[in-house]
Amino acid sequence: MIDHIDHPANTTIDEIYVYNQQSWGGGGTTGTSPFGKTPEERFGRACKIGDGIMEEYKGTLISAVDYFATTPLYSDLYGILATRVTKITFQVDPLIGTPARYDGKTNTISFRTVTDIIDYNTNEELVHAAQKVMYGSKMTNDIKNFEFEAKVIQDIVSERLGFRPFRGNWGLSDSFASEYEDFIELLGAKKELTEKDLQVYFELLSDWSNPEYKGDIEFSILPILLMTYIVF
Q1: What pTM does this model have?
Q2: Where are the domains of the chain?
Q3: Tell me: the pLDDT tens digits for 62-84?
Q4: For labelling alongside 15, which of 63, 91, 151, 170 has CA 20 to 30 A away?
Q5: CB neighbours of 27 closer than 8 A, spacing ≥ 6?
Q6: Beta partners for 110?
C-alpha cells in the first residue's frame, strides 16, 4: 500500500492545488482529451466510485480525477490506467490512518475522509496506480525507489506548470534541496534522460532522507515510468 502521509509538504502543496483549481475552474486541456468529452466520461474510462463517497462529494472526486486526466504529463499516465480492464475503485476508509492510500492488491484508492478528496492527494495516488501497472509485483513499500520517483514526477509537472514549492525536497537539508531543485528544473526542459541524469537521480535517491518514507534502495530498478512518460 502507498500512502499520502500527514506531512507539512502535503499541507502546503494541497493549498496550492486548491487555489489553482479554484483559479482555473477545472483541469487541463479538456477540449482535446482522448478519454471523453466530459469529466464524467473521462472518470469512467479508468475509475469507479465505491463505498463512503457521499453523493455531494462525487462531483469533487470526479473533478479531482479530471484534473489528472486532462493535465499535460499526468494525462499520459491516465492513459496507462484507461487501458486496464479493472478500474480503480475510489472509496472512503477512516481506518487507513493517512489522508489517502493506494492499494495495488485491490486497485483501490482510499481517502480517510471526504475532505481529503483534493487534487494533490488524488494526483499522488494515481501516479502510484500507474507505477503499479508499470512495475507489477516489484512495487512494494519495502523499496524506497517508488515513493521518490512519484515525488520527482509530481515535481516535474509542477515545474512545467510554474508551481512551487517542490515536493521531494521539503524539510530536507539546504544542500539537498538546492541539488534537487536544480535537477527538477533540468528535467523540466529535458526530452530524454542521459546516463549522467540517471546517475544524479540515484545519487539524490540515496541522499533522500525523508523520515516518513522507509525502505531499501534498489539500484537495479530504473525509473521507467519517469523515463517513458514524463521526460519526453
Answers
A1: 0.84
A2: 34-136, 140-231
A3: 999 999 999 988 999 999 999 88
A4: 91
A5: 39, 63, 66, 67, 68, 69, 70, 71
A6: 91, 101
